[in-house]
Design a protein that fits this description.
This protein is α+β, with helices and mostly antiparallel strands. Helices cover about 25% and strands about 35% of the residues. It has helices spanning about 65-80, 115-135, and strands at about 5, 10-20, 20-25, 30-35, 45, 50-60, 90-100, 105-110.
């Protein structure tokens, strides 16, 4: 009981009971999910091993990639020092992930204890975005250039 699982690649929640005929789970919105045991074909259990958190941080094209990676690394290291109870290893910056329409993406990987991944992802994102902004590294936003054609008649 209490395990966070996905059944049949369809139902995700926390196991509340396993009976002779049915398994009951609590879904993420609090709904009760009841599945006949005979229809269970596969189970994904998210509570047995460390959970990977992968975050990407976009920076604008005019930002220094090496500088951004250094800021993300320092912020992640500081976060790890304060939250060793949630993380199982120090987060690592994997480097440039993508070159997008509006900027670059830098990838960070962290491993958490089961069921901590959502809280860690939210708070780690916040810490790193604040550090990037404090360092003057801009986060991209879409820019649209509109060109109008003016026709001249006569003259």
């Amino acid at each position: 009981m209490g395990e966070y699982i996905t059944l049949n690649q369809k139902f995700t929640g926390i196991v509340e009971s396993v009976g002779l005929r049915v398994t009951q789970m609590k879904g993420s919105d609090g709904e009760l999910i009841v599945i006949p045991n005979g229809s269970i074909t596969d189970v994904l259990n998210y509570c047995r091993y460390d959970i990977r958190v992968k975050e990407t941080f976009e920076i604008s094209f005019d930002s220094n990639i090496d500088g951004a990676e250094a800021v993300i690394t320092a912020a992640a290291k500081e976060y790890y020092a304060k939250h060793r109870d949630l993380l199982t290893a120090e987060p690592t910056v994997e480097g440039l992930e993508t070159i997008g329409e509006n900027g670059f993406s830098i990838c960070l990987i962290a491993y958490t204890k089961p069921m901590s991944q959502w809280a860690v992802a939210r708070s780690l994102r916040k810490v790193i975005v604040k550090a990037l902004l404090k360092a003057g590294i801009t986060i991209p936003h879409p820019v649209r250039e509109i060109i109008t054609k003016v026709e001249h008649h006569g003259n």
